[in-house]
Specification:
Helix content: 25-40%
Radius of gyration: 21 Å
Number of strands: 17
Structural class: alpha/beta
Number of helices: 14
CATH architecture of one domain: 3-Layer(aba) Sandwich
Mean pLDDT: 96
Strand order of the largest sheet: 1-14-13-17-15-16
CATH topology of one domain: Rossmann fold
Shape: globular
Strand content: 15-25%
Low-confidence stretches: none
Length: 444
């Protein structure tokens, strides 16, 4: 019997229209807009100014703290301006606009396709290099990877868990990456194992990707300590806590981290980025992005430079369909709607999803009928209907005591609600206010 997490979850239609589509390299644009902050944590310090010339892979914004990540140029050319530009959040953020001139890379980056298996760097040097190369979690959270690899005193990792689940409907970027870069991923996993000093790694893949399971299983036999585990298709299996429970039956405590149960979790795309950083000296300057939707004429998986416009990706997939009602950055469950499409691809852009008008419109909100469907599907064992009610009333102390901060914002509650209530919207509001309360307490 296939493993899965025991509490909650849903199974939306998968709609993996871009599955099996070979990764296409997006042509270079005329300009890129590279946000100076593409990670969770402290902002960066911009190192370039208008008129500076840059090469591919050159650092252009420096991390300003431990929980922060360097930003590198994804193109070569001249800095046109450093300004506040609209990003996918809909707000203006500090960004570096570069006019593209040729494609000149930093001399120390290995641009060949040669597989390098031998890991020469020490444990500490791996963590340092990952930090220098600006690697963040590519599953969408964009947490700086070197922070996860820096095990605090008194803690010990036993397992490295690789999240290759890609449980969001529509998205196929990780799936296709596994099919085309399996060997590199295996070396990346081995590097991560060395970085946290563990001998066991488990790659979790949902059973709707049988070719990826077969491919990585055949490769894993050549690498010490790596195991591939097929999982039942159940959203949100890709949540860290759900994946840990499914694979090794350990439960991360409320308010805790995977390291509390001796685990470190990394996305499969991050493992590939780590391979390129350590073995090829290549910073995180590009990523795989799925562009898809029911009306999209050419659902695709693209390798895109960081900073290219979402418009360019959409055009490469056949253009914006005439019946478009909404464009989403990410997947349908956890992604955020874009107010405009001339926004840059960032390290956290896993997909551009185009919804038809009939799918995009919200239905009329009806009164809660206390059916408890939202409770039964919540993978964290919360009561979403209650959290929405107390957040609506502004009772944020109650929102905190009802464990809103444990919510992983998977959207299962809103998806299953027969009254089409915006449960997650209000829970997010509640979490935002509780977060402010907690920060204020900590500053006293």
């Amino acid at each position: 019997m296939l493993k899965t997490f025991p509490v909650g979850g849903v199974h939306p239609p998968e709609n993996k229209f871009s599955a099996g589509k070979a990764i296409e390299t997006l042509p270079l644009p005329k300009t890129v807009t590279i946000p100076a902050g593409q990670h969770i944590g402290a902002p960066t310090q911009v190192l370039v100014k208008k008129g500076d010339t840059v090469k591919v892979g050159q650092i252009i914004a420096k991390a300003s703290g431990f929980v922060s990540a360097n930003i590198h140029s994804s193109v070569s050319g001249t800095v046109a301006k450093v300004d506040e530009i609209f990003d996918s959040s809909g707000y203006r953020k500090p960004s570096i606009v570069i006019n593209v001139e040729g494609d000149e890379w930093m001399e120390d980056i290995d641009t060949s396709d040669t597989l390098i298996k031998d890991i020469k760097l020490s444990q500490n040097d791996i963590v340092k290099k990952v930090s220098e190369m600006g690697i963040v979690g590519l599953g969408g959270a964009t947490f700086p990877t070197h922070v996860k690899l820096s095990i605090p005193d008194g803690k010990k990792a036993e397992y490295l868990i690789i999240n290759a689940v890609e449980c969001e409907p529509y998205l196929t970027a990780d799936h296709q990456l596994m099919m085309e870069k399996g060997e590199e991923i295996m070396v990346g996993v081995s590097i991560l194992m060395k970085a946290i000093n563990v001998s066991k790694a488990i790659i979790g893949i949902e059973n709707n990707k049988p070719n990826a399971i077969q491919h990585l299983t055949s490769l894993a036999g050549k690498y010490q300590g790596i195991k591939v585990e097929a999982l039942k298709v159940q959203y949100p299996q890709g949540g860290e806590k759900q994946l840990i429970k499914a694979l090794i039956n350990r439960e991360v405590p409320s308010g805790g981290l995977p390291l509390d149960v001796n685990c470190v979790v990394q996305n499969v795309g991050t493992a590939f980025a780590v391979y390129e950083a350590i073995q090829k000296n290549k910073p995180l300057i590009e990523r795989i992005v799925s562009v898809t939707g029911k009306s999209v004429s050419k659902p695709s998986n693209f390798k895109a430079r960081i900073g290219v416009s979402a418009d360019m990706l959409i055009e490469a997939a056949g253009g914006l369909p005439s019946d478009t009602g909404k464009v989403v950055n990410g997947g349908p469950m956890m992604g955020k709607a874009l107010g405009r499409t001339d926004v840059p691809v960032t390290k956290g852009t896993s997909g551009i999803l185009i919804f038809k008008e009939e799918e995009a419109s919200r239905k009329t909100i009806q009164p809660c009928i206390r059916c408890a469907k939202c409770v039964s599907v919540c993978p964290m064992g919360l009561e979403p209907y209650l959290l929405m009610t107390v957040a609506q009333k502004g009772n944020f102390e109650r929102v905190e005591t009802e464990r809103a901060m444990d919510c992983i914002e998977c959207g299962s509650c809103s998806y299953t609600c027969p009254s089409t209530r915006p449960l997650l919207d209000y829970i997010r509001l509640g979490k935002f206010e509780v977060g402010k309360m907690i920060r204020a307490r900590n500053q006293r």
